[in-house]
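Review form for a predicted model. The reviewer records the input and the model, then writes brief findings.
Reviewer: anonymous (R2)
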Amino acid sequence: MRFADVIGNVEVAGALVSMADSGRVAHAMLMYENEGCGALALALAYVQYLNCSNPSGGDSCGECPSCRQMSKLIHPDVHYVFPVNKGPKTTDDKPTSESYIKYWRELALANPYFTEADLQRAIGIESKSGLIAVAEAKAIISKLSLTAVADGYKAVIFYLPEKMNQETANRLLKMVEEPPEKTLFIFITHSPEKVLQTIFSRCQSIRVMPLTKEEAEKVREMNPFDDSEEYDQFMELFSDLMRAVISGDLQAALECGEIAAALESREKQKAFCTFAGQCIRKIFMIQQKMPQIAGVAEHEEEFYSDMAARCGKGFCMRSIANIEKVVAMIDRNVNSKILFCDLVNRMFLSIWPR
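Model under review:
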């Protein structure tokens, strides 16, 4: 992928080009984004630019052997790590990213702005939580110990390092801290606060900014999955919940919590929480007199404006914090009914304190 193909974040792309041109290439970089905003696309374009034989005008040529390999995600010195689990698409007892690399390539080539839910669907683990386990660290250390095939940079792109456990991080720490010459680690996270401090502290951080409305629309057109049905399902549930809470109907609100807890997998429950958090952020932006960056669809403006007018000043911040706690508890296998019942109660009390 070339920088010219990346949607949005022109300033970030320019900063990466400047780093490469000046020779100040950080050996470990943490790119943090809101999900689906292009960090992976930027990482791919950056690595392609670093290894391009004929870069010009602040971009890779797209035609040299290295660029052609990067365009198919088959460059022998570029490795990909992402959360995995056992599933029907692999027979490995201890699967690693390599077990699913075919599906990763297909997904990333079709849409490098994919979400975590898209990835889980692509590799067939929708009903499970992905993890970057210690077997992954062993595989990466083994690969990086080999001499580079081409005369360029070796790179490891980590998607969602927050899914890495402590043992994996400990195994990688020495390599991240003192990598072999011309070796770089690029970590792409949606939750920088969840990345283990031992990794976070050794990285140069880069904030990938949210996409504009027009840019987000272009990204949606690239998505190989049709999420319109899920969006409609989540929007109906969220709007029913908010209307029940605002009107003081605790019974109706708790019924919405029951529906959320009954979603078919923990990953879908987390996806709803993410969706709800994004919706509440839109309400917050409207309350702050910034509707232009709220990203509200025209047909939903009346709903969000009504909610913004009727919610108290502290409601949004408290609700987002409570939703993030629910996501963390789902990851720890806490009972979903208890979690969503508690979330609904807290949202209700934010509007109707005792």
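Findings: The domain at 3-222 is CATH 3.40.50.300 (Rossmann fold).
Further findings: The mean pLDDT is 91.
Recommendation: see findings above.
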